[in-house]
Amino acid sequence: MNNLVTQNYSHPQEPVFSSNPMQNLKSLIEKGDLHFLSEFNEIFPDFISKIKSASSKLNAMDIKFCVLLKMGFTTKEIASVTKSTIRAVQSRKYRIRKRLDVPNDEDLNLFMVTFF
């Protein structure tokens, strides 16, 4: 299994220059760069604290999934980035929905995108 920390240092860091900070962030996430979280916090400074306050039942992986949903990642993209199956992502989304008390008739992806 690749270690993300050593993976980032074993290859020269490619500078990411784009006028679109969301695209830069998505690129960092897709590369597995651990700096994506600090970049995310610059773009959405209150999201993680508000999502944590919405439910104390969320664990670190749930919050990472919420970040990916906030970024607009699809289930397939989340599965690819997290190196898990589509079914595992669907199950995680279901658990997040229950922990945040999101109604069944509301789209979780849309909920995250519009959540502060």
TrEMBL record:
One of its GO terms (molecular function) is DNA binding. It comes from the Bacteria. Coiled coil: none annotated. GO terms for biological process: regulation of DNA-templated transcription. This is HTH luxR-type domain-containing protein. It comes from Echinicola vietnamensis (strain DSM 17526 / LMG 23754 / KMM 6221).
